[in-house]
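stuck on this fold:
=====
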Amino acid sequence: MDQALGQQHRPTVVVPHRGMVLLAALIATFMAAVESSIIATAMPTIVGDLGGFRLFSWVFAAYLLTMAVTVPVYGRLADLYGRKRIFFVGTGIFLVGTTLCGLARTMIALVAFRALQGIGAGAIQPIASTVVGDIYTPAERARVQGYLSSVFGVSAIIGPALGAFLVEHVHWALVFWVNLPIGAISIAMFAAYLPEQVERRRRHIDYLGAVMLIVGVGAPMLALVQARSLDGGSLVALVGFGLAVLVFLFVHETREPEPMVPFRLWRNRVIALSNLGIFGTGSTMMAISAFLPTYVQGVMGRSPSVAGLVLGCMSVSWMFASFAAGRLMIRTSYRLSAALGAVALVIGAAMLTRLQPSSGVAWAAGGSLVMGIGMGACNTAFLVSIQASVGWNERGVATGANMFMRILGQSFGAALGGAILNFGVFRRVPDAGDAVNRLLQPALRHSLGAAEIARLTGAVAASLHEVYLVATLTALATLAISLAFPAGLSPLRPVAARAR
C-alpha cells in the first residue's frame, strides 16, 4: 500500500515541456470536440441544401459509430506502439475525411465521409487524454482532466456560433474545413514536444477481436437507425447477429494474450461503473447536441444563430462545471461529483420535456445550461477515476474503453433519438415527404403554407418530446450508477480503486 501511495506523487512519464504537451492535447481535443457542436448547428441548413431528412441521424450516427468501434483499437495500439505514432495515423485519416465532407454533394456521400472521419477520430480524444494521464499524477489529473473536459465546453461555445456564421454568410462546407489547420498544429506540437521511447519487441495484434468488435456493435446500431425501413425479420436478424458476435468476442478475448478489449478490467468496480455511467451521460447529451437545434429552428422557426446560442449555454456551464468537479472530487469523492452531475442531467432533460414553442428560447437555453453542468461533472469524475485505477501499460486501453462507452452512448442516443423522431413525424404526418426538409431551411420555410407549417411543427415538437422523455430516463439510470460508486474514493485516496 505504501508503494502504491508513493506512485501518486510522481507521473508515469516525465517530459521536459509538459505544458506544451498539455497544450497539444487540448488543441487535439478541441478539434474532435468542435466537430460535433459545429455540425449540429449546420445540419438543418445542410439537410435543406442536400435533402435526405430520413438520413438526418445517420450524419451523427455514422461518425459516432465508427469512432466508437475504433477507440478501443487505437487505445490498444497506443499501448503497444506508443502514443505519438498512432495519434498521427488517426489524425491523418480524420483530416482526409474532413476534407471530403466539405466536398459532398449528396447526403449519402456526406454520411460515407462522416464515417471515414469517425475512423480517424477514434484516435484523437483517447490518446490525448492518455498522454495527459501519463505525464500527470492522479491528484494533478483531477485538475488537468478538468481542462480537457472544459475544452468540450469551449468548443460548444465556439462551434455553434462559428457554424451559424459560416452557414449564413459563407458556405456550410467551411464548418468541416475549419479543422484542417487545427489538426496540422496538433500534429506538429506532439512531434516537437512529446519524447517517446517504446520498448522494441514482437507485438501481437488482435485483428480478429477488432473486426468482431466493429461487427458486433455495428449490426445492432444499423438495425436501430434503419428500423423504419427494415421489416421485422431483418431487424431481428441484425440484432441477433450482432449479439452473437459480441458473445464470440467475449470468449475470444479471454484467450488472447494481448486482447483488443480486455474485459478483465471490468472486474474492477470503479472501471465498470465509470464505463456504464459515461455511456448514460453520452446518450443523454445527444438530446441536446443533435436534436435541440432541430427544435429551435424547425419548431420555433428561429435562425441558426439562435440555435447556436442555445447550444452555447450548455458549453459555458460544461466548462465551469469541469473545473469545479476537478476540485470537488479532490476534497470529497468521485461519487459525490458524479452524483451531482447526474442530478443536473435529470433536471435538464426533464426541463426539455416541458419545452413548448410558447416557452421561448429562454426555456430551451435553461435546459441546455443545466445539462452542461451535468456533462462537465460526470465526464471529469468518470475519466479521472478510471485513469487512477490502472498503470501505464493499461492506461491507453482503459481510457479508450471509457471513451468507447461514451461515444457508444452518443451513437446510441443519436440513433435512438433519430428513430423516435422519424417514426414520430411520419406517424403523425404520413405525407410529410420533402416538406420537413423545407421546414428546417429558413430560406425555404416560407414556401410552406401556414396550415402546413403548423401541422409539421406540431409533429416535430411532439416527436422531440418523446426523445427528451427517453433522455430523462437515461439520466435517472446514470444517477443510480453514480450512487453505486465506492464511498470516499478520490484522487487523494486511490488505493481502494484497486479493490474488486
